[in-house]
Amino acid sequence: MSAQKKRNFKIEAFKHRVEVDPKYAEKTWKILEHAIHEIYNHNASGLSFEELYRNAYNMVLHKYGEKLYSGLVTTMTWHLKEIAKSIEAAQGGLFLEELNRKWGDHNKALQMIRDILMYMDRTFVPSNHKTPVHELGLNLWRDNIIHSHKIQTRLLDTLLDLIHRERKGEVINRGLMRNITKMLMDLGSSVYQEDFERPFLEVSASFYSGESQQFIECCDCGDYLKKAERRLNEEMERVSHYLDAKSEAKITSVVEKEMIANHMQRLVHMENSGLVNMLVDDKYEDLSRMYNLFRRVPEGFSTIRDVMTSHLRETGKQLVIDPDRLRDPVDFVQRLLDMKDKHDKIINVAFNNDKTFQNALNSSFEYFINLNNRSPEFISLYVDDKLRKGLKGVTEEDVEVVLDKVMMLFRYLQEKDVFEKYYKQHLAKRLLSGKTVSDDAERSMIVKLKTECGYQFTSKLEGMFTDMRTSQDTMQGFYASQYSEMGDGPTLAVQVLTTGSWPTQPSTPCNLPAEILSVCEKFRAYYLGTHTGRRLTWQTNMGTADIKATFGKGQKHELNVSTYQMCVLMLFNSEDCLSYKEIEQATEIPASDLKRCLQSLACVKGKNVLRKEPMSKDIAEDDAFYFNDKFTSKFIKVKIGTVVAQKESEPEKHETRQRVEEDRKPQIEAAIVRIMKSRRVLDHNSIVTEVTTQLQSRFLPNPVVIKKRIESLIEREFLERDKADRKLYRYLA
Amino acid sequence: MANGSDRVRFIVGGKIFETTTTTLASAGRHSMLGALLDDSWNLRQPAADGGGGEYFIDRNPSCFAVLLDLLRTGELHVPPNVPERLLYREALFYGLLDHVRAARWGPFDGNLLRPAASVAGRAPGDGTAIRAGPDGGCCVAHGSMVHVYDWMLEEHRPISLDYQQVNDVGYLDTQSIVVTARERLGKGDGGMGLFCSSTGELRHRFRVAHGNQVKSFTAGALSFSGSDDKIFSSCRGRCNEYGIGVWDQNTGQQVDFFYEPPGCLLGDADKLQWLDGSNCLMVATLFPRTDNCFIGLLDFREKSVVWSWSDAGITTSLDEKRVLHAIAMEDGRSICVVNQYDDLGFMDLRSNAGGVRWSSRSRLMNRKLPAEESCYPKLAAHEGQLFSSMNDSILVFCGPEWVLTSTLRRSYGGSICDFSIGGDRLFALHSDENVFDVWETPPSPIIY
């Protein structure tokens, strides 16, 4: 039976397709939709995560992903529209707070919805190129809340109004501001930029444009800069408190443009308080503020630099061409140094030691120092003054400081060879008169010149020192050998100077008194005996003498005089009265020197050991001179100076200049020959440029002079003009 | 330590599991279990009774056990009664698929490889290329189709090119595959496209413009540069467009073109390889595509060929050693080549004059002429190991002298026409049966 039945058993085709409950998807979605509502209504505690997750999973698994996703979009949109209404309804100041609170709620809800729909997020979303749930939630918030037209403008206005109030000094709720801007940033950088940052920058620009206008009308430059700086710091602080860090560069550039760049020229040139006044009054703080603010804007530095340069050039020019200043070279140089110190300090303290500013300062000094062609002489005189007396009781370090400063000025000089000339003269005077205070200081100065200009520049100066030393040895040797024969005749101190090293003028020696002459002859014999093949000439115009004199009432004085003066005075040992002519004949002192010498002996009050008939200031050919019996002085030692201009007289100056020009000729020629030797053929302009670069460490050669030298070299057949191209020169070996 | 509130109880498909929140924390917040325990879902269950929470999950208990064990130990052990596909599905439910993948096989080592799977394809005998994806998936190109497999070796919708012959394929990333195709005469097709690996849709077509005109072309070998996101492909156009095209990976726009200089074969290249260290592209055009092999290094910044080698004039008879495949070694100092006798040879990139220095290993092996059905050998280098396919096996070489250390061979499938290493796996494609083998390194042993 049963077998029969089994045989009858027939496998039938499935009549009805296996079908899930047609309302399955709808039902499941209802559960999930309900859950989303509950989450938004803060009623999630009754929900089971496992159940919701499983339902969402099942929907995706059964290919209802699309329905789930679109349902989510609809439900969330509906909730956000409700939220939008409640935010719109918030009154006044509560608006932002409501927005912030709802944003917090939405984020929390979004997190929970995302948890439920995690499976969809992992599988359905990527393969169907949908937006992931979290991003979707942010986008919907953006579209339904932030971009709802009732909220969008109100939000922007509220934010800008709060910032405006804060700028005006009110205290606002920064925490709330931070949350709102953070929300805008979370919604994507484009939302933050379009819905807040761009209008914020526009409003700020107009605010600061107005404020800067107002400030500039009523503040001086320093105050204005202070205000601008404060505003800038406020904006940076604002960014750090509640804006996106990327906004900092943008808002500061707005402030910089409106408050600084737009008013830069006016600020710098502001009357009574602009840059020039700050420089004059050493307002380090203001200057430093200006530097720090202007560095932020294009052209800022160049503006400051240009104004500073022209100010420096102007004041410097006034200083160097002021005829009053030219009377006192020491003061002149001291003022230059003070000016340099002052501006160095400004650059150091206020301008952050900026290299470009230092360069501007240097070029300005270079410009105006060379405007006055006596600058080299004055600088040398300044050193002379310092080394003669100025450095007494000053430590070695201080000496170095002074000399270093002088070297700084020296560097600005174009005519360094002129300086060398004068320095040599002044050094010679110092050495011969024994006026130099410190040998170390002298040597240190020479070392500085050597490092600056090379061996050649200082070799003669060093030669002068050597001469001084060997002279000392010679004198010791002389007295040691002659000791027995000397007796009580006058003591002689001879300085043997190498011709060429010293700036000596050829002069005919005067007639020395017999007492002196005999000692001199002894020395000559001794010197030529030890050094054969040399020639000695006496430079009587450069010597000094100490002589003892007894006057009318028997008082004795020791007179410190020059050799010329000594010769004159010795004549009065035998005569009481001598005419000018007689003196001139007896001594053979050149007329100009004699006049000066007599002037100093007879016409200076308190030192008039001679009396002149008639009494007058100037010496005439027919004057007569008497021994002044009535001479008195409270000092035993009396120094009778020669009337010499400390500065050079006009003709002397002229002469020095000519000598400098003369000295330059061989140097220029040597440079031309050096250049042509290596280049063989060169055109005129190139020679001029090369010669200038070679020589500019010593002086700036004049192109006309160079041309003359070239012509002279052509005459002497060192060079020839090219046959074809007359502009070319050819070196003839 | 695990005090009361740390304990969690699950009832999964009727079975009770107890674990700790610490164990579950390793699943991460963006997994189902992580969300389940998150505070926002547990407001009503203040775990006051010391038993922690109790959760019901309506899922398969055996898989839950496996996955819970994975979270506890980081190791994956699948009992024989749990099919892999079932486990993967459950892992996807819990959001733990990445954990499973990471525990599935260990870091790649050519000497420890074991066969993990064999996947049979549908079309026999015409395999063009196999490429490993970055996550352990692969794609197989044959004819006008590219079959795509994910790391679970599930086949996705294939990329179909409407009868255009596929020349080369490459993974740009897990989601994107670049395919180069041959142009058919009379149709403006061919070229190069970017496809979605999960759906097989065309996402982007790469263009070649010559004199501001878009040209149709045949794209050949592919290479990607890691450092500056470029795609290189050899291009053969109708008239002038012979050379190497360069595209930006992010924008898909053509950024450069290296026109074929005289004496260098670029447009037909068999192999391109970007060398990160020297910023050069190696181009190899080899026998039998051309009678005279050419290998060169291109510098795109100066548009110059900085190194090249050719066997023009060297080879005279068919029995001579012909270079059949070439790769630049990872140190960027030499190029490794292989010939029809499966000899390895090396060329020094630092000198331009040297020829191929053939390794002596060939003399030790029985030199037999290749069987009729055999495939040309291929080479690959990976983390200091050198791989060479020879008939039906892959040889692994190690050390400074490149000593043979392992041989990978399956018993069936015929000779290997291509293989590829990536995602810590090695894929070998057999030509006869169009079957590919997957080799992987087992996870590290229990005791180190």
Automatic annotation (TrEMBL), chain A:
One of its GO terms (molecular function) is ubiquitin protein ligase binding. One of its GO terms (biological process) is ubiquitin-dependent protein catabolic process. PROSITE patterns: CULLIN_2. InterPro entries: Cullin, Cullin-like_AB, Cullin_homology, Cullin_homology_sf, Cullin_N, Cullin_neddylation_domain, Cullin_repeat-like_dom_sf, WH-like_DNA-bd_sf. It holds the Pfam family Cullin_AB. Residues 374-602 form the Cullin family profile domain. Keywords: Isopeptide bond, Ubl conjugation, Ubl conjugation pathway. The keyword Ubl conjugation applies. The keyword Calcium does not apply. Belongs to the cullin family. This is Cullin-3A. It comes from Cocos nucifera (Coconut palm). The lineage of its organism: Eukaryota, Viridiplantae, Streptophyta, Embryophyta, Tracheophyta.
Automatic annotation (TrEMBL), chain B:
This is BTB/POZ domain-containing protein. Signal peptide: none annotated. Pathway: Protein modification; protein ubiquitination. GO terms for biological process: protein homooligomerization. Residues 6-112 form the BTB domain. It comes from the Eukaryota.
